[in-house]
Design goal:
This protein is mainly α and 509 residues long. It contains 18 helices and no strands.
Length: 509
């Protein structure tokens, strides 16, 4: 099996492992830290995550330029590029520390709702996070070098090992009485070990060298011109997932931050399922664009991928609307309480609703990348996500965490209206046909299944056994009815082809 196929397989293992361990670990960590300290941990993490924008997309530039020099067999150019990049990272790490020192002095005046003891914890966590970031940014480029060499197995395997060992260590530390500061120390140790291991692999196994043969401002401009749009999308991601934490941190108590963080966590898990499908289709989009595929041909592919995503997402969304409140209460209700669990469930639902269309249309991102037309998307997302954050901050004054996410979701919905107009009129995608065929058979089937699920939800009981029975029954009904009356012939053949190897193995056993 090639490095690319092994890397893709390991990528899916990572997604699956991250979701399973994440869902399992969250209530454990929350219960041991407590609602307030968990909220502090999330808020400071989000604040430092904002400072991580100083990477300016350089890691992606490393992958692209290393691959370019390697393809050209230009060893000297590669060495010079990597040495120049490390010099840039040295400046960036120095800026991270400088900004960190400035921020550190203002933490107590910014987080006005925290007690003096909570501020002390926040400051220690912040200092450790800044150290992690200053070391981690240049360290991350080592993984970028591996990717540029198309050596995916080592860094992805190392990441899986790190994730498993880190989870085991966190459990041990918390059982021994450790708190949020201990968790950050654990992360710091693992980050240093990963950097050292990857550095050894890059220099001794891939035989990569860092040598400055010449220094040119023009050369640096070339690097940043490539990474500029990547930086913009990183900024968009900050406003989507992290800005709410530091806005709420200014006006709300750490308890509210914990509730908001749980809702965000559930929302991001929702996106992972669909992204796993659409992310593998960039090469197909690139080939179709190079082959000058028509708008109708691209729409055909978009419909095929979109219908599969829609079927999966509707199962998750409807199940979460029906049974999610019970799940969240069983999952983290011991710490968040009834009201906190309800708010986290509502935040997650709002995210899922706002996030569904961009996930179903995930192939459009691949099309825009392949056509080199990311500029409009980047500007639209960034400008409206900033406005959404401002609106969320205003609503949060009266409505707390719910108000914060409502502002962001409103921005997402407006973005999708604008982007669909753009897809239809500028990229020649047939958006009307897309929606007509996406909803063909599926929407009525979803409504039918949802009505049956509503009856299932009235099965008496409140514990995990009751929830599991409801979930299994609903999953079976959704699978059977969606396959029978909600799918078209292409999808039926695809599901049969996917499941047939599993069925054959089960029959042999």
């Amino acid at each position: 099996m090639s490095q690319i196929k092994k890397g893709a397989a390991l990528n899916y293992v990572t997604i699956l492992l991250t979701n399973i361990i994440g869902i399992s670990m969250t209530p454990f960590v929350l219960n041991h830290l407590g609602k307030a300290e968990y909220g502090i941990y999330l808020a400071i993490g989000a604040l430092v995550g904002t400072i991580s924008l100083l990477d300016f997309g350089l890691n992606n530039a490393v992958i692209r330029f290393v691959a370019k020099y390697r393809a050209e067999n230009d060893r000297k150019g590669e060495e010079n590029f990597l040495a120049t990049t490390m010099l840039i990272y040295l400046i960036i790490s120095s800026l991270v520390i400088l900004i960190g020192v400035v921020f550190y002095g203002y933490l107590d005046s910014y987080f006005t709702k925290m007690t003096p003891d909570e501020i002390k914890i926040a400051k220690v966590i912040f200092g450790l996070f800044i150290f992690n970031l200053a070391v981690g940014l240049p360290g991350g480029s080592l993984t970028g070098i591996c990717n540029g060499y198309e050596d995916f197995v080592f860094p992805k395997t190392l990441n899986i090992i790190r994730y498993v060992l880190r989870s085991i260590t966190v459990i041990g530390v918390l059982l021994l009485g450790g708190k949020a500061i201990a968790l950050v120390i654990v992360d710091s140790i693992f980050n240093i070990l990963i950097i050292l291991s990857t550095g050894y692999y890059v220099t001794n196994k891939l035989h990569v060298k860092f040598k400055l043969h010449s220094f040119s401002v023009k050369y640096i401009k070339q690097i940043f011109s490539y990474s500029s749009w990547i930086f913009v999308f990183a900024l968009v991601s900050i406003f989507q997932w992290k800005a709410g934490h530091w806005v709420l941190g200014r006006i709300s108590t750490p308890d509210v931050l914990a509730i908001y963080g749980i809702g965000i966590t559930l929302g991001t898990y929702y996106g992972a399922f669909s992204s796993a499908i659409s992310s593998v289709f960039l090469p197909r989009a690139t080939k179709m664009s190079v082959d000058n595929a028509s708008g109708e041909q691209l729409t055909d592919m978009m419909i095929k991928i979109g219908r599969l995503s829609f079927i999966i997402l509707m199962f998750i969304l409807t199940a979460f609307i029906l049974f999610g409140k019970q799940f969240v209460f069983l999952w983290v209700g011991r710490t968040l309480g009834i009201d906190g669990s309800y708010q986290a469930w509502l935040i997650a639902i709002l995210i899922m609703i706002g996030y569904t269309l961009p996930l179903v249309q995930g192939f459009t991102k691949s099309i825009l990348e392949a056509k080199g037309k990311l500029r409009f998307r980047a500007i639209t997302y960034l400008s409206l996500m900033i406005l959404g954050t401002i609106l969320g901050g205003i609503l949060a004054i009266d409505y707390g965490a719910i108000g914060m996410i409502v502002g962001s979701v409103i921005a997402w919905l407006i973005i999708q209206l604008i982007m669909n107009f753009y897809f239809h009129n500028k990229i020649d995608l047939n958006i009307f046909r897309f929606f007509r065929e996406i909803f063909h058979k599926t929407i009525l089937t979803v409504l039918l299944i949802f009505s049956i699920g509503y009856a299932i939800n009235h099965i008496p009981g409140i514990g995990w056994i009751n929830f599991t029975i409801k979930a299994i029954v609903y999953t079976l009904i959704y699978s059977v009815l969606m396959y029978s009356i909600g799918t078209i012939e292409f999808e039926k053949k695809l599901f049969k082809k996917t499941l047939s190897p599993i069925i054959i193995k089960l029959k042999k056993k």
